[in-house]
Amino acid sequence: MDRDALMLSLRLAAWTVIILLPLGILFGRILAWRPFRGKPLVEALLALPLVLPPTVLGYYLLVAFGSASPLGQLYERITGSPLVFTFGGLLLASVIFNLPFAIQPMQRAFETVSQEVRDAAACCGLSRWRTLWRIELPIAWPGVLSALVLTFAHTLGEFGVVLMVGGNIPGETRTIAVAIYDRVQAFDERGAAVMSATLLIVCLIAIGATYFTGARLDRRRHG
Amino acid sequence: MADDIHDRGLHVRLQQAAPIPLAVEIECAPKELLALVGPSGSGKSTVLRAIAGLATPSKGYVACGGVPWLDTRSGIALSPRERRVGFVFQHYGLFPHLSAAANIMESLVELPVPARRRRAHDLLARVHLDGLEDRLPGELSGGQQQRVAVARALAREPNVLLLDEPFAAVDRATRERLYTELAELKRELSIPVVLVTHDIDEALMLADRMSVLYRGRTLQSGVPFEVVTRPATVQVAQLVGLKNVFRAGVVGHDPQRNETTIEWRRHRLRTRIEPQFAPGSQVTWAIAQGQIVLADGAAGEGNTLDGVVLQYLRLGNNAALTVAVGGADRPPLFLSVPLHVARRNGVEAGATVRISLLPESIHLMPADSGPEAEIEKHRRIQPASDVAA
Q1: What is the average per-residue pLDDT within B27-47?
Q2: Multiple choice CATH, A3-221, 3.40.630.30, 3.20.20.70, 3.40.50.2300, 1.10.3720.10
Q3: Is A141 within 8 Å of A217 (Cβ atoms)?
Q4: Domain map of chain A by residue range?
């Protein structure tokens, strides 16, 4: 059991969730409520990571993050370290390939907050923050929660993109999914089995918790 | 004094070409209930949203209590929050995850929590919902939800109360009860109240004044009964559901008897004097269904006409009659008489009846109703095809 890899995966998943929560709320609300030109294009771009082979996405991210790219150079100038094969680069890649998992469920969730309810909040004199906090988020909560859980679980399990952008550096970019692959390659069946089971249990608990919470909220709201 | 009341009321002028064309001018004094009436798609809800600040027209002026809320010329545009409006939405817009009391408390955030709770309870009691404070909206009936919405709209002591088809989503029995409650509530309010509805009867029952809206334009404003019985144009007549609309020729005026005479299908009809229509010219005349009476025996005051009953329909305690005058192929007259009167006169399909039109109930309008004469097709009235011989 590679504890370092497990901790790194959990850290990566937690940071991805922390970064995508506000981004998902922001873009989810815009996509749910505001018609604008080119909206289908934006939605298609956001959904792209769902259908693209992870190695393809990983390849483009690798190119975009490399020290030859403007983004890679900028990052290196600011932090002094390169973007590829570092935790920072891995996190950025993780945020990008998780965009659909975070934004789509939140968009659907905010679509359930009707125009009338939002108008009513404005006419009741609620500030934007209070409307978000007291009205929109409580109504959209199940969708927001499942978005976060999906993002978390998906980050734990992602393999192709991680390997392309992060490589396999212990303690820096070796996630549990990569470690499992490593163990199998080294004919360490037991190590692979333990880590796989751990990942399975963590994901099951996370997904189970959302369904359980969703069902309870549903019961409360509809009597 | 009149000017003072004028200033304290609500003033709305909206102009816009797209997305929904608007040319609206309405006013509503404090304590007054103004009904905005029109078919669906006429822009009623857009006007209400513009008053609330939920929509901003490209050109417009909205002021209430002497305070400008919107003035596109000087760049004033207050937010809904700053305008302090009470808004009851068509589907109420209640916060589904909050109890009835919490829904109301949410619009009282300026008060400390215990005061909020007290006021929410008081308001719920005022709309006869005491005891249901902790219910979620989903656990309340449609009528109860509407009452919560009204209580919530009044919670902030709004400057104006806006009601968007508030009776459309409840059953008929509940609606009747809510009408009474709104009428009672209105008596206690000292603010302008604007009610959007597509139901003329609702406007007649509840409103002090009404404005008829069609395709984003206010066509006529006035006392509901006046608008309904004396529409300014054929278009308004059709919109308010007048079915008896016909063309006639002006014969002449008699100032001494205060009468104008018109000729319709070889009958001379006396009407209230309307000297603006020149003798020899064409006019359109209209009469409400309920204003035509069965003439028993003596001619009396009215214009009497003989006709053949084409259709006899019993509607509750009334009989709806379709009567052909001057030939069955011409547009008939529609009248509604109490059932017992119809029975006493032996009215049945095919029978000949004598009807009477009181001169003061006949309303004259310009013959030409302008470029927008075609209203929706289902309100089919054919004044143009019914030109007098």
Answers
A1: 93
A2: 1.10.3720.10
A3: yes
A4: 3-221
Q: Is B39 on the interface with A (CB under 8 A)?
A: no
Give chain B's domains with CATH numbers: 2-229 (3.40.50.300), 234-386 (2.40.50.100)
pTM of the model: 0.85
The C-alpha angle with vertex B353 and arms to B348 and B357, in degrees rounded to 5, equals: 125
Q: Output the furthest CA–CA distance in chain B (Å, rounded).
A: 76
Q: B155 or B378, which is more confident? A: B155
CA angle, residues B218, B375, B204, in degrees to nearest 5: 55
Among A116, A122, A139, beta carbon nearest to B80:
A122
Chain A interface includes B110 (CB < 8 A): yes
* Mean pLDDT of successive 10-residue stretches along chain A, which has 223 residues: 89 96 96 93 93 93 91 90 91 95 95 96 94 95 91 92 89 91 93 93 88 76 57
A103 near A24, Cβ under 8 Å? yes
CA distance B140 to A162: 52
Strands B282-287 and B292-294: unpaired
Q: What span, in angstroms and rounded, lies between the C-alpha atoms of B227 and B222?
A: 6
Query: Is the pLDDT assigned to residue B174 strictly greater than 70?
Result: yes
Reduced to 3 DSSP states, what percent helix, strand and coil does chain B have, rounded to the nearest 5? 30, 35, 40
Beta bridge partners of B261: B252, B270
Q: How far apart are the first and last CA of chain A?
A: 46
Chain B residue whose CA is closest to A124: B107
Dig out the tokens for B124 from the structure: 């719920």
